[in-house]
Design goal:
This protein is mainly beta. It has one helix and 14 strands; from the N terminus they run H-E-E-E-E-E-E-E-E-E-E-E-E-E-E.
Length: 281
Amino acid sequence: MKLSQAIYFLAMSIFVGFAPTSALAEGGPAPGEEIVSLQLGYFFPAFDTKMRVADEGGGRGTDVNLENDLGFDRNETTVLAGASWRISPRNRVSLGYFRFHRSADKVMQREITVGDETYPVGAELHSTFDAAVIPIAYSYSFIKDDDLEFTGSVGLQWSGISFKANGSASLGAKDVDAEVQSEAQAPLPLIGLGLTYYFTPKWSVGGNFGTFVYKVAAGNMNFQGFIMSATVNGDWWLSDYVGVGAAVNWFGVSIDVEAPRWNGSLNYQYLGPQIYLTGRF
């Protein structure tokens, strides 16, 4: 069992075990009236990832598709977690977290240049791509009644991104045994709208959409590009306190990066279902 799976099942056990003992009875928070909401589940996205790393001498570097050129699997599974705090009936803050660790081995079918290293056709390349995503948002409910809540939000999609490649080859006059690594912390702003409709006290559907075109300068780092995110979800409450849900999430980002450890671009998107357990108190 992977460490992430062990943590997930342990957290799920704690989550359910510490739910209020009155969870099977009536009297809990009404829909949209909870103070604290916690979420824990799994995410199953499919990726399309393109990147470019320039060299220190100003060379542009090769545009590389991680799935097609480097052999990365398009599909990934990860644990997701989230929490929100309703400060007042119309004001809420939320925090989420999920992380991807992807790796691949591929014999190069074309020559590519990543940073200061060039890997020829036939080189054996082992590469990894890690991304930790932390969405942070403040939401305000413009409309809030017994069966409908319409919100606007502002926040950051904080992404920690790391790429590493290690290649080797002995092909005639070309001997390659080189490693390159690039990483960046990307604070990506996001504004959005959300809608939740309560068909009954136990069943709700909703969705949200966010986007931003940005140019961010933070210290000696510069990011510019765009970000878009969309989610559709449905929730069923097993009791006043514990519910289950499913969602489909799409996310796309295009970044031009100028940073000490990454100079180039990153374009990636993912689409996939989520399943989760929710507690409200």
